Request: fold
Amino acid sequence: MKANNFEYGHQRLFHLLIVAVAFLTYLFDRDDIVWRFVKGSTAPRTWERSLFLIATLAIAVGAGLCTWARAREKNRDLRRSRYLGELLFAIGLASLAPLWGFVILVAGEALRLFRLMRREDDPMPASSPQAKSHAEWRRALRQEAGKWAMLVTMIVFVITLKDRVAEVLAAGSLLSGLLLNAPFFGFE
Reply:
């Protein structure tokens, strides 16, 4: 069960489709997974803030791993680090979705990443470790800009716990990630 050429070549598209389907579950359930489990407790805001802080840490570690692995992309051994980062990011992001959205996002991303890893398990010529390069780090930061913007969104959300603020900043995160990686800007 490996990713085909189309899936491999359009990884961002498949990720965005999974995220879209997960967040469309808000049409049926208005409570995110965290609020669903803490709303009946004696200190719901404290629990909510604590759980979203853990989700924010998952997003931070995920964004860091993805950026680091992309900057050293030519070293094949580090590619799995990026997939771990993608999964941690998905878990943190899924904390904002309803229960079924959480399940769809985490399971969908896990399946997508598993298929990509299986494809990369095919024998390929070995590559040498890549030397540090400012250009590679700039490229990696640009490619992962949406994740870093989402981290800022989560930090602000943990502080304010205002849904509207998180929604606006998350939309800005998505747009910044898409625009910074759009081919018509000639960044590639």
In short: The CA atoms of residues 89 and 178 lie 17 Å apart. The mean pLDDT is 88. The radius of gyration is 17 Å. The chain has one domain: 5-121+131-185.
